[in-house]
Amino acid sequence: LPYISGKVSLEYPDLENICMRYNPPSNNTIESTFHFFYRPPHRSSQERDDFFHAFQQTISKHPSHLPLLVLGDYNAKTPQWKATDPSTTEGRLLSSALDDLGLVQLVKDTPTRYSPTGR
């Protein structure tokens, strides 16, 4: 069986993040790392800034020779990912962080959440 380990950020205890490293059982598959993040909506600007700082610091420490997949719910919007969305501060901060880290976001131009109220 493959070995999967998980951990939370000890350096940033308020960061809602789980990191999992997948070590495959054979030499034919590459070890991979998965980071899962959640940024709750409606937080103070200080909490928002703290999240994006911790996000960047956490991802920047990832070994560059290992594949990395970053997943999450960032409660951030920008027309860069969905043409009809207004840009939010969170969207601009996430977009900037991804650019700084050399990452791209793979998103379809469809909602990831549906609500009966349409929000």
Task: Note down, in words, how this protein is organized.
The chain is an alpha+beta fold. The chain contains 2 helices and 4 strands, in the order E-E-E-H-E-H. It has a 4-stranded mixed sheet with strand order 1-2-3-4, with no helix packed on it. Helix 1 runs parallel beside helix 2 (89-101). The protein has helices at 45-60, 89-101; strands at 3-7, 16-23, 32-38, 68-73. 24% of the residues lie in helices and 22% in strands. The longest helix has 16 residues, at 45-60.
Salient structural properties:
about 120 residues; alpha+beta; four-stranded mixed β-sheet; 2 helices; about 25% helix; globular
Alpha carbon gap, first and last residue: 42 Å
Spatial strand order of the main sheet: 1-2-3-4
Using only CA atoms, what is the Rg? 16 Å
- Which structural category do the helix and sheet elements fall into? alpha+beta
Largest sheet, described in full? Answer: 4 strands, mixed
- Assign a percent range to the helix content: 10-25%
Helix and strand element order: EEEHEH
Strand content is 15-25%
Low-confidence stretches: none
Q: Please report the number of helical segments.
A: 2
Shape: globular
Number of strands: 4
Mean pLDDT, as a whole number?
80
